[in-house]
Amino acid sequence: MNRLIEGLDVHMLTYNSRFVRIIVLLASWGSIAAASSDQVVIRPREYSGALRNPLKGFRPDTGPRAFTHEYGTLARCYLKWNELENSESDGIDRIMRVCNERWKDVEKYNVKVIPRVYLDWDEKTGNEYWPSDMQVHDYSSDQFKRRVQRLIQRLGECWDDDPRVAWVQLGIIGYWGEHHNPSPDAQMQKLLGDAFTAAFKNKKVTVRHPWEFTDYEFGIYWDSWAHIQQMESHGEGIARLNAERGRWEVCPMDGECAYNWGRYQEQPGDNPNDTLSDPVHHAWLIDTIRRLHGNDLGWVASYNAADPLVQAGAQEVQKAFGYRFVIEQVRYDATVAPGQVFHVSFAVRNTGSAPFYYDWPVEVSLLDSVSREVVWKDTFKGVDIRSWLPGDRWRKETKRYDIEAATYDVGGSFAMPSDLPRGDYVLALAIPDPAGMVPSVRFAIENYFIGGRHPIGLVGVGKVPPSTELDPASFDDPSQDRTLHYELAPSADASRGNWHVREQPT
Predict the structure, then answer these.
(1) Which end of the chain, N or C, is surrounded by fewer C-beta atoms within 10 Å?
(2) What does the pLDDT look like over 424-462, one tens digit per residue?
(3) For 90-162, where are the E strands, in sequence order?
(4) Do the beta carbons of residue 24 and residue 17 sit within 8 Å?
(5) Residue numbers of the domain that contains 409
(6) Does residue 372 share a domain with residue 436?
(7) Do residues 360 and 486 share a domain?
(8) Do 345 and 8 contact (CB within 8 A), yes or no?
(9) Neighbours of 481 (CB within 10 A)
(10) Residues 347, 406 within the same domain
């Protein structure tokens, strides 16, 4: 994937403009503001802590822990085939009913699920969950092939447009849906790959063994992430797939740490608390996340946040997971007249390990300087946040990427309403979830308001503002904000999974 450069070259404009005389002012709160009669440049200070951001990070399973986890916005959800469909006569409404029960209220907590369907939990009799009209352990008959294709098609109808679903784990075959006991043969690999590709046009799909699906653009779920006995086999296989095909640039790399087999005490440690508190285990885990471009992990999410050493390690790991967008500077018109064009641009860098995997918009808004209510908003055109890539080729010796993260420049020109009242407003940036168009992704900067918007500076509409600087005492701590959410708007036929996103007018 090419690293796209959008909008204006803000750096060059700031320092080399022949037409704008820029006066640089050092703000007391640590950012630098450059101002002229027309332009202001703000350089926010990076937020030092970890952020609870969507579609990345520590990943518990569905249940109360998914709602209370300090960083968790993803939850894996195991689903038995026979609870979704116990006979061929069962309709798609049964799938939706089960999902609605299992995923109740996830949107209120800004949590999205990663579902995986399975048939056999393990080798124990009684832990099989086949539909009643199918032969248990029959993975090869024509009936099974027909039924599994039908199931995948129905899952696509239910989940592909459901905002609650982050992405889908291919699963189904073998113990825990992890493609062993049995492993799918070449014919079954093609059947599954074709079926999931056809069913999921909007959601990403991940697989347990990527070498079984090299012809498909699938991500990875690896059940022994960072396990010392698996790194040379599975870990190196993921590294090769990333290096040769750039898979990490377009699909999530995730899974879980394993603490129940082999030499796990050596790496990644005895348990989640040991992994996060022990310096050797902690560094090992971050190195694997950085090198393999890890987006999220389970099991290790079950740590004790009350332990200060564990919590400190969790914060550093969360900062390494997935994306972390740092705004380096923002440039905008200090004044604008109602009905005229307002220019805004900013420079952003991804200091995390992975991209953001969906095409979400970037919002610019003007807020009432007292109430913080939105009085106007719009979205940047032609901006694809999926292109904001992190660095690549992690080197554990230096703790740096050989290929450093690029700085991406984003710019927009916005027609202001002709009836916008004269006054001083707060310029704010945000990345909203398309499900309701409410702010969701947080930039890693100190400029923050509860609710998910990032205040940058003051703008005068129809007048010159007395100052463009904001009082840092007015900023909120993003780590304390649990108000973020998204919205569901089911259609009249929601029982069949025809969810649609309610987009708020801009």
Answers:
(1) N
(2) 999 999 999 999 999 999 999 999 999 999 999 999 999
(3) 112-120
(4) no
(5) 10-48+324-500
(6) yes
(7) yes
(8) yes
(9) 16
(10) yes
